[in-house]
Fold this protein.
Amino acid sequence: MTMGTHILVSEIFHSIQGESSFAGWPCAFIRLAGCGHGCRHCDTAYAEEEGILMPIEEAVRQALSFGAPCVEVTGGEPLRQPGVYPLLKALCDGSPHVLLETGGFLPVDRVDPRVLSIIDIKPPSSGVAEDNCIENIPIAQRTPGKFEFKFVLASRADYLWAKSFITVHGMAGTCTIIFGAVFGELDPRYLAEWILEDRLPVRMQLQLHKYIWKPDTRGV
């Protein structure tokens, strides 16, 4: 047994995709255990727990058994585990739409090119903005349509920082950019008004699962 053939799993479940361009679709989720970055806005701190060591083929079998139109690997921080790469490959061989949600701390250059990578960019209020992996931006710009960058913002200051960030890094018009509000901290109406006022070429999203179920509900 090696960690290249097994993964540490926090949970596998079937829910509604709450974020990204796939928001609203039924989706099977494999949440991997472990992160260690300590983002202040983390809403899945329970994924820091040890998790269950599982063969990759068993995780794939469970996820595909739901028959969902898309499958997402998330965390925690899934890219911490070496087994995530063969896991993603195996999922791509069995599902037409495979998503990866990563905290944006690690490079995505080894991810199967069939995967849609959803990459967080952490704002200052998260406490970990200095850990953003900037090298992911040119990777995404070289492969349009396979990457999305997600900014989850808690304040006007976060918004202004994000607005500057996408300009400084030449992201507008070259990357898919999604702005969202930290649930319970920033009124989405304000975020919508700022985006409209500034004519930003970004997509706004709400975390649908937090409006459908209670925000602290697990397995959704």
